[in-house]
Write a structure and sequence with these properties.
A hairpin with a 2-residue loop joins strand 13 and strand 14. The longest helix has about 35 residues. Helices cover about 25% and strands about 40% of the residues. It contains four helices and 24 strands. It is rod-shaped and about 145 Å long. About 5% of the residues have low confidence. About 15% of the residues are buried. The strands form five sheets. A six-stranded mixed sheet has the order 18-19-20-24-1-23, with no helix packed on it. It has a six-stranded antiparallel beta barrel with strand order 3-12-15-14-13-16. The two termini are about 85 Å apart. It has about 375 residues and is of the alpha+beta class. It has four domains: about 90 residues, conserved putative lor/sdh protein from methanococcus maripaludis s2 fold; about 90 residues, Efflux pump adaptor protein, beta barrel domain (Elongation Factor Tu (Ef-tu), domain 3), CATH 2.40.30.170; about 60 residues, RNA polymerase II/Efflux pump adaptor protein, barrel-sandwich hybrid domain (OB fold (Dihydrolipoamide Acetyltransferase, E2P), Beta Barrel), CATH 2.40.50.100; about 70 residues, Orthogonal Bundle (Helix Hairpins), CATH 1.10.287.
Length: about 375
């Protein structure tokens, strides 16, 4: 009985030992190889640093030539011959005043002129007759002098009346308001039969062919703008179109309300769709101080090790896949858009912009555009 129990225990121990041996043999066999982890990275193409800065300033479109038309004399509006939006030619009548009193004054001046002409002619004839008698000693010298003075006075009176008629004719033109240029009526401030005073605005005409844009420039940039400088003009209503402009006026004093310096540009080229009052953006290009020929990469694309600064460039090997290469670079200034690269890159390379610290030279990656 005791021998059987001992035999059973030995068999159990041997079985356990055999199981452990099999298990250990299995653990020491061929290990299962883990799959390679391919990281997804973003990249960006290396581009040259721009040698200029672009700055946009808000502006407003206005007509280049604007005339606020008014009469040189007061009176009652008799006719209005042009309305808002009408195109007018130079010299075209826009409005007239009641000119009956002026015409009566002209007629009176013409009558007075005719009277003085007759008196002058009579005085001249009398002087000629008296002079002939005086030369033959038929009249005394006093009578000759009297005839001479009468003619001088009549001639002077005639000259005065001639000037009076000219003045009345000129004043009669004050009752007609004509456009001083080709353009468009943009405002009319009065109505027919309304009494107006001298200098009161009746209508506003704007030249249709001349368009200007006025922009407010901050003091930081005003010193870099001068007459004749060119700029681009863009409109929110036409984002796909760009218009050329040239600076014609640069204010010396700032606007007290906006604290900016008004700059006026005249538009050049086609502008059929542009109207006064439209908001615009004026784009100026300013040179960078100390600009050099260099490349720029994003800040996160540059890392540093014992050998210096480096970046990873990526070469596509398939759809959405690539292999990275470690490139040592010489870094210049740190700018708002990234690092200035002075050497190591030629431009056009694609540099990794994320996860640089997890990469090694020759590693496969998945590509995501930055």
């Amino acid at each position: 009985m005791g021998d059987d129990l001992m035999g059973w225990k030995k068999k159990a121990v041997c079985g356990v030992a055999a199981g452990l041996l099999v298990a250990m043999t299995g653990c020491g066999g061929d290990k299962q190889q883990e799959p390679e982890v391919i990281r997804a990275v973003k990249y960006r193409e290396v581009a040259p640093i721009p040698t200029h800065l672009e700055r946009r300033f808000s502006g407003i479109t206005k007509a280049g030539d604007v005339v606020r038309m008014s009469f040189r004399t007061g009176g009652k509006i008799e006719t209005l011959q042009a309305g808002v939006g009408d195109r007018v030619k130079r010299g075209q009548v826009v409005a007239t005043l009641d000119n009956r009193d002026a015409r009566l004054n002209l007629e009176k001046a013409l009558v007075d002129l005719e009277k003085s002409r007759i008196q002058s002619d009579n005085a001249k004839s009398n002087l000629q007759r008296t002079k002939a008698l005086y030369e033959n000693n038929n009249v005394p010298v006093s009578e000759y002098e009297k005839a001479r003075d009468t003619y001088a006075n009549a001639s002077a009176a005639y000259d005065v009346d001639v000037r009076a008629v000219r003045l009345q004719k000129r004043e009669l033109t004050y009752y007609t308001l004509a456009s001083p240029m080709d353009g468009i009526i943009t405002a009319r401030e009065v109505e027919a039969n309304e009494n107006v005073s001298s200098g009161q605005v009746v209508a506003v005409v704007q030249a249709g062919d001349s368009i200007e844009v006025e922009a407010g420039i901050p003091e930081l940039w005003i010193a870099q703008i001068s007459q004749g400088q060119t700029a681009d003009i863009v409109y929110p209503a036409m984002p796909d179109k760009k218009f050329g402009g040239r600076v014609t006026e640069v204010a010396f004093e700032s606007d007290p309300e906006t604290h900016t310096y008004p700059v006026t540009l005249v538009m050049e080229g086609p502008r059929a769709d542009i109207r006064p009052g439209m908001p615009a953006s004026v784009v100026f290009r300013f040179g960078r101080e100390g600009a050099v020929s260099a490349l720029m990469v994003p800040v996160h694309a540059v890392a540093k090790d014992y050998a210096g600064h480096y970046v990873y460039t990526v070469e596509k090997t398939g759809e959405g896949e690539g292999v990275v290469t470690k490139i040592q670079v010489t870094v210049g200034r740190m700018m708002s858009d990234g690092f200035e690269i002075l050497s190591g890159l030629e431009g056009g390379e694609k540099v990794v912009t994320t996860g640089v610290s997890f990469l090694t030279d020759g590693k496969k990656v998945k590509l995501l555009s930055d």
